[in-house]
Description:
By secondary structure, this protein is mainly beta.
Amino acid sequence: xxPNEYKITKIEKTVQLRLESPPPFTDECQxxxxxxxxxxxxxxxxxxxxxxATPFIPVRLRRGEGLNLVNLExxxxxxxxxxxxxxxxLKSVHLVLKGDIELDVEHGRTLPSSHARILDYLNGPExxxxxxxxxxxxxxxxxxxxxxxxxx
Length: 152
């Protein structure tokens, strides 16, 4: 029996990760996504992974290093390093996060008109909510958001 027959195939996804651990940690890391989405065709998206993961996830914090198990609640944000397809900017938002972090992000999700306000988006069921920043998606742990303000 070949032990590789039991190996679970994963897709390595490079992201920039911000942890609130002392001292604060921000660096390029690797997460490991499933090759099959739970909710559609193709590979699991980063958003699916973050919002359906178990409390501890395997993360390679630095190239060549072994795996670390990271508590999702310690993650402030995950920023995709690959550019995302352009989408319309519906609202520009200033966020203040725990740890004296301030970010200007763009909200581009088209939501039903009854739930299209930032208030509705922040109060949705997801743990990590998606915005755009510097041409890529950034998924912010909404438990780390202290306040938000729409720009303009």
